[in-house]
Amino acid sequence: MAKYSNVPAETIYADLISLCENGKKVSAHTSYATLRHLFLMVLDDKTNDVGFAFSGPFAKMDYLAKEYHLQKNNYRALNHFRAKIRNIKKQGEEDLKRMFTYDVRLFAEFVSCVYQKAIPDALLKFLPNEVWVESERS
After folding, report:
1. d(Cα 126, Cα 138) in Å, to the nearest integer?
2. What percent helix, strand, coil does the chain show, rounded to 5?
3. How many Cβ atoms are within 10 Å of 105's Cβ, its own excluded?
4. CB 13, CB 119: distance < 8 Å
5. 2-28: b or e for each residue (b if 16 or more CB lie within 10 Å)?
6. What is the pLDDT along the chain (138 residues), one digit of tens a residue?
């Protein structure tokens, strides 16, 4: 995968808005493939200038979570999300549809944290009020 640098948060948010607007027109697997691409893009972008190499997405996510002091519940949920999108073909379409807006919310909060940019109202209108914490996830 190509390395990304200097990807503005506004670009990520615009892609998430588009994904939410078009979510019912495409399969959940397709939507999650796009989410995976965006997640990996953010990981690459925010770790691009670090002075050492990472072994993969988990290491990048873990570094950013520590660097930006991600809350423990959100860290666990984000790691669950990372594992889910890594094995997307094993997930059922209905389960993905049910969790989609919660996962977008979680990812948007991660973007907000690492880019220090608030989630725009245009995106928030599509999302539930809270992240679905790990104990509530299936």
Report:
1. 22
2. 70, 0, 30
3. 22
4. yes
5. eeeeebebeebbebbbebbeebeeeeb
6. 445 567 889 999 999 999 999 877 899 999 999 999 999 999 999 998 888 889 999 999 999 999 999 999 889 999 999 999 998 989 899 999 999 999 999 999 999 999 999 999 999 999 998 766 544 444
Burial letters for 50-79: b for 16+ Cβ neighbours within 10 Å, e otherwise? eeeeeeebeebbbbbbeeeebeeebbbbbe
Q: CA–CA separation, 6 vs 44, rounded Å?
A: 10
| Nearest CA-CA partner of 115 in 37, 59, 45, 32 | 45
Q: What's the pLDDT tens digit per position in 44-60?
A: 999 988 888 899 999 99
Other beta carbons within 10 angstroms of residue 104's beta carbon come to 24
Whether 61 and 43 have beta carbons less than 8 Å apart is answered as yes
The rounded radius of gyration (Å) of the Cα atoms in the chain is 14
